[in-house]
Write a structure and sequence with these properties.
This protein has 126 residues and is of the alpha+beta class. The chain has 3 helices and 5 strands. The chain has a domain of 77 residues: Translation Initiation Factor Eif1 (2-Layer Sandwich).
């Protein structure tokens, strides 16, 4: 078994000269750099929702389990909306045909979220 040797370090010496002193004067005399590029104009984002979004609760044909079906989400945005709803509401979500299906009775919470995200008209059908 070996024993550890204790190191004795000398206290650090005070610096007498700043290595950055010469740079301070050089930065004041430097010409200004190039202007930052202007942001590129963004293409118009496609609408995520149709003019009317219907949120309804269903139970039929699911063995007594309740789901919330959302109709009126644009096709390119369905997967993104389903993923965002899963995170925001803490539930499962899938896409069936042209609808987003949430697992659970979440009509009010889903409708509130859709309104906050920019859906113009949200119809709650129970």
């Amino acid at each position: 078994m070996s024993t550890k040797k204790k190191r004795t370090e000398a206290p650090p010496k005070e610096l007498t000269q700043s290595p950055f002193a010469a740079l301070a004067g050089a930065l004041a005399e430097a010409p200004p750099g190039p202007a930052p590029p202007s942001p590129a104009p963004r293409a118009a984002e496609p609408a995520r929702f149709e003019p009317r979004v219907v949120v309804r609760r269903e139970k039929k044909g699911r063995g007594g389990k309740t789901i919330t079906r959302i109709s009126g989400v644009a096709a390119p945005a369905r997967a993104d909306v389903a993923a965002a709803l899963k995170r925001a509401l803490g539930c499962g979500a899938t896409i069936e045909d042209d609808d987003v299906v949430l697992l659970g009775a979440l009509v009010d919470r889903a409708a509130d979220w859709l309104e906050a995200e920019g859906a113009r008209r949200v119809v709650r059908a129970n």
